[in-house]
Write a structure and sequence with these properties.
The complex is a heterodimer of chains A (167) and B (46). Chain A has 167 residues and is an alpha+beta fold. Helices cover 31% and strands 24% of the residues of chain A. Chain A contains 5 helices and 10 strands; from the N terminus they run H-H-H-E-H-E-E-E-E-E-H-E-E-E-E. With 46 residues, chain B is of the alpha+beta class. Classes of the chains: A alpha+beta (167), B alpha+beta (46).
């Protein structure tokens, strides 16, 4: 029997036990790691990335804890991504206020940035099937227009180290 | 973790790849992204 094309809702995916377990584990990080992550995310917004670990005013061990919890990805002494931000080019170019451009790690990250920042953003990307350019205007309340556009949420093993991640 | 211009294109891609995962409408994908980065991540950062 041919499997049906899988279409899900956000509620379906957030009800997944692995999703909840992963976030519970992340929420167990200590106060020092939380402070470091706040600073790293602010740096990605303000300046982009990657960020030299040595340039942070936090112990390397704290950054390693964030890496171990899959909240950032450290490579060669640099934080190369801190979800939802990537410090290296991806297929998801984010237009922020003031003409700033950043890269998001993946489609879901790109769509979550407006809610995270509390400001409207633009996502420039391409259809993964035909490569047609897509521009999505997204406010903290949701996307405007772009009727018919869909996103694909893959499995974790596809992603880490390839500038994209699991939920 | 990609976008498709239409469900037809997502379906055609999936029929050729049989990739693991699921498709979401743009509205549902936004709900997921907003829940993660607008709610869970800020809660973690407090």
């Amino acid at each position: 029997m041919t499997p049906a094309f899988p279409v899900r809702t956000a509620a379906d995916l957030m009800a997944d036990a692995d999703f909840e377990a992963r976030w519970k584990e992340r929420e167990s990080i200590g106060a020092a790691a939380r402070a470091a992550l706040r600073d790293i995310l602010a740096r990605f917004v303000a300046d982009g990335g990657p960020i030299e670990v040595a340039s942070l005013s936090h112990p390397a061990g704290v950054v390693a804890e964030l890496d171990a919890r899959d909240l950032v990805y450290v490579q060669d002494g640099r934080v190369v991504l801190a979800y939802p931000w990537s410090g290296t080019p991806t297929a998801f170019v984010m237009g922020l206020s003031g003409g700033r451009e950043r890269w998001a790690c993946c489609a879901i990250d790109a769509l979550g940035i407006a809610a995270m920042l509390g400001e409207a953003v633009q996502v420039r990307t391409r259809c993964h099937h035909c490569a047609a350019p897509l521009r999505l205007d997204v406010s903290p309340q949701g996307p405007a227009g772009a009727a018919g556009v869909m996103a694909w949420v893959g499995k974790r093993e596809d992603l880490r180290g390839k500038a994209c991640t699991a939920l | 973790m990609n976008f498709f211009r239409s469900e037809e294109h997502a379906r055609e891609w999936w029929e050729g790849s049989r990739a693991a995962g699921a498709a979401l409408t743009l509205a549902e994908a936004f709900r997921l992204g907003a829940a993660i980065f607008g709610e869970r991540l800020p809660r973690l950062l407090r």
